[in-house]
Amino acid sequence: MSSLETWKKVDDYFVDQLIPEDPVMNQILQANKKANLPSIDVSATQGKLLQLFVKMKGAKNVLEIGTLGGYSSIWMAKALPAEGHLTTLEFSPKHAEVASKNMETAGVKDKIEIIVGPAAESLPTLEGREPFDFVFIDADKNNNPRYIKEALKLSKSGTTILVDNVVRDGKLLDEESNDPSINGIREMFDLLKDHPRLDSTAFQTVGSKGYDGFVLAVVQ
Ligand SMILES: C[S@@+](CC[C@H](N)C(=O)[O-])C[C@H]1O[C@@H](n2cnc3c(N)ncnc32)[C@H](O)[C@@H]1O
Ligand SMILES: [Mg+2]
Known about the structure:
By secondary structure, the chain is of the alpha/beta class. It has eight helices and seven strands. Pfam families: Methyltransf_3 (PF01596).
């Protein structure tokens, strides 16, 4: 009974019950597929979770690291007030182009700016846009420690940071891993441990994206 197949069905049930069918969001996933983007976006329930975080925070200024086709960006942008703004960082010009079209399709393009380039180079240029209220980190996992440090510089007390894919089917536990993503995730946990400015937890997830999880950190 409790196979991954079951948990995928539970995710489908949640979507049926809680997330009204949205042809535009489906169209965006189709556009990503057509452009051969990897289907590594958040799931619909996770997109809704991001949207609810933005609502709960009353966030007006959001930062995302890792745009892909803009699926998660659009979920968040839809919860922003009229004067709200989302800055999203993406390495791949191709991904950014697909995302830009998707943002137009979803009617949220005026609220979003995509900055193309390696996030580690873009982040120090964001001074003047800070402080961000909510930060979503979902890019190259080896750089997670660096992204947390840079996000902190752009934060204020109460800024909430959410990091995706911190469990990776349990590979997180492999101390001897040769995978830079796993090492980046583990180094991020070392950084968060007893961090003077960050109050953090992590939670595991299962469903249409397999076994994974998020880190949630609030800036003191
Ligand atoms: C998991 S996907 C993002 C998914 C997206 N947040 C969503 O849920 O719809 C990760 C993205 O990060 C981008 N990326 C990888 N390395 C990067 C880097 N060094 N700087 C900025 N973006 C990077 C990839 O090109 C990819 O589009
Ligand atoms: Mg992710």
